[in-house]
Amino acid sequence: MKVRLITLGCDKNTVDSERYLAQLRDHGAVSVDDAEDAELIIVNTCGFIDAAKQESIDAIVAAGRMKSDGSATAVVAVGCMVERHKAELEAALPEVDFFLGASETERLVPELHARGLIGDPVTQHPGVRVYAGDTPFVRYLKVSEGCDHGCAFCAIPLMRGKHRSFARDEIVREAQLLELQGAREVNLVAQDLAHYGRDRRDGIRLPELLESLLAETSIPWFRNMYLYSAGITPRLLEVIAGAPRVLRYLDMPIQHASDAVLERMRRPERQRSIREKVARFRDAVPGVAIRTTCIVGFPGETEGDFAQLLDFLREIEFERVGVFTYSPQEGTRGAALADDVPEPLKRERLEAVQELQRHITAERYESRIGSVAPALIEAAADADGMARARLPWQADDIDGVTWVATDAAPGSFVEVTVDDVIDDYDFRATVRRVLEPVAAPVASPRRRELPVTTTIGSFGR
Fold first, then answer.
1. pLDDT score recorded for residue 133
2. For the whole model, what pTM was predicted?
3. Across 37-117, where does the E strand assignment appear?
4. Where do the domains of the chain lie?
């Protein structure tokens, strides 16, 4: 069976899809890059905001069209949007063979097997996950599932359930397997990474998890993605500041800077505490790059509230800001509020934040010119001899890239001097020397003892 698995949404969905692929390959399935070549198309949906839902629906409809045209024999939809809207989707899209929500992940392979779409297990799959992209040395490691925060705008707890931290040993084991598959950078992801371990009784929190990952793998770069500022402790900052392999990078969503809006959003922080914590982070971890996200147009957001957000962004000067317009999500507290900011005004405010941040990012990036830093080569040199790389303050797929003239292989680390900022968010740099050529990882005795079929049970549920 030839399978095309289409992943939409966040990096946590990417992790789920990689686990699906491993299970499918264990049953003889072969993944293909083009849906037109597939016999089975699986769409892993996102239901976070309206735009993501529409993208998911469009992908499902396109897959169904391939089935009706004869290029595919079966279509399946899974994931977050299905969790929230399964009944409506089943009624509207009869061409889809079946739907499974985010809480039903363990049913995918049994359902496919029962319908004769995949066979019995035929081979031992290569670890808990199979990477199907272009950069297997950049991987994501999910350390928990679900969320306990009650943000008024967010439906994630309704789709993913309450927060559940995975056991440290399971996470370390998966990281070791990713290293054996060639991982050079591992991005730790969760709904709130800083919340890790609070639901467990073993005393292991994010700092201890990071120390274990450092001690029990040789992965060169670990990056922390999506931490509420309330959970970023002095102990965590101490680990980040003292461990060169943990990148000086924080992805810390604030969502707004008006206390009135933050209160209606049911966010745990206020402008003063955010300001104080950013100052503390920058003092404890010199050179740290801080990325954040904001929502404009939340119910009741006045011109004064929006002005406070702009003023705060000017004052704090985050390296990068992702901004979204608010859309009410069924079942959330925000959906009970009057959506009283007109859509054209939401778009206007979004564009204003983007334009302001474009200038702030340019200034922050220009301050890096002349600095010397390691860079991870992502893609080999093109016809002009320029290879694509990323610096420590550039997260995969969201923070721009760096162009360097080198024949170093993808997956290698080089030391560069930053020469210039180009296209607002990218850099041009000169290679000083190769730091660490990419090489096949050598398993330690401990890693050789690991069973390659180890899984985090039911995707951690």
1. 65
2. 0.84
3. 40-45, 74-79, 98-101
4. 2-114, 138-366, 372-436
